[in-house]
Design goal:
Layout lengths: L2 H4 L10 E9 L5 E7 L2 E8 L1 E6 L2 E6 L3 E4 L5 E5 L6 E8 L15 E2 L27 H17 L5 H25 L4 H16 L7 H8 L3 H12 L3 H19 L4 H7 L5 H12 L3 H10 L1
Antiparallel strand pairs: 1-8, 2-7, 2-9, 3-6, 3-8, 4-5, 4-7
Helix pairs in contact: 2-3, 3-7, 4-6, 7-9, 7-10
Amino acid sequence: MTKKDTVWAGWDQLSPLLRRGNFWDGAPAHGFGPRYVQDFQILMIQAGCGEAMVNGQSFSVSAGDLIFYGPHELHAVQSSCRMPLRLIGLHFLFQQEDLPRLDLSLSFASPALYEYPLGELHVPLEPRPPSKSSPGTASSALRSCESLVLSYMTDPKGRLLEKRGLLLMLFENWHDTILNEVTQSTLSPMYSRIVDQAQQAILENLKDPPEIETLCRDCHISIRYFSRIFKACTGMGIRQYTLHHRLLWARRLLVTGKLNVSEVAATVGFDDPHYFSRCFAKRFGIAPSVVRSDCQLA
């Protein structure tokens, strides 16, 4: 898989819409499938281990893994006898105009190809993501998946903008993880660990992240070389990386609708709410005040 293959055309402009979310607990040596579904689906492995198959490709799965598959792709999941799988399942579409016409009482699984009743399903991910992402997405992706399921269970047909925002955040996290996995494969394990540790230190202290001098001192390499390997792995410099994740955090807070724009700006480390608004609008193409007001109405 090349770096080019991991960058999905227009992925950050998508409007995915959740139409089913659930938790699944597998008894030892039990699973489901083989079957098809008409939706896109993401399975998040919450706990346990086992085997998954998508379109004839088999691989081991364990806590933290994500499995992606699209409409009409044959898939199956089997729990380990020793550590049964616990999954979060998210079914979603990309056509906003279809949502009001969906019959949520239908069973979407079938042993044969399912004829999509509303015409061809739009598939904007080209190329499609690989069937399995690496671990390491576990903490933030798990929170997003759990929030999506709870949002669906609380209000299956409402809060559409909240659901869309959470799905977009999940895609963003997943995309970054896959991109890092590819770029880090060109580095030695020692330098990959250095970048991993630096990312963790930044993400754990986004409001007041460590200075680059501190990061370099902790890993005993020069600022110049550290900056080079960090950008090789993440595609961004330290400042850009910090800003990127602050804005993602801000979008997550805005989606909840619990804080106003100034409070969100302060929470994620911006002293100036007007500067925050400019950065947010430049990154996402929409003002933070619009995101918050839309989510309150959803």
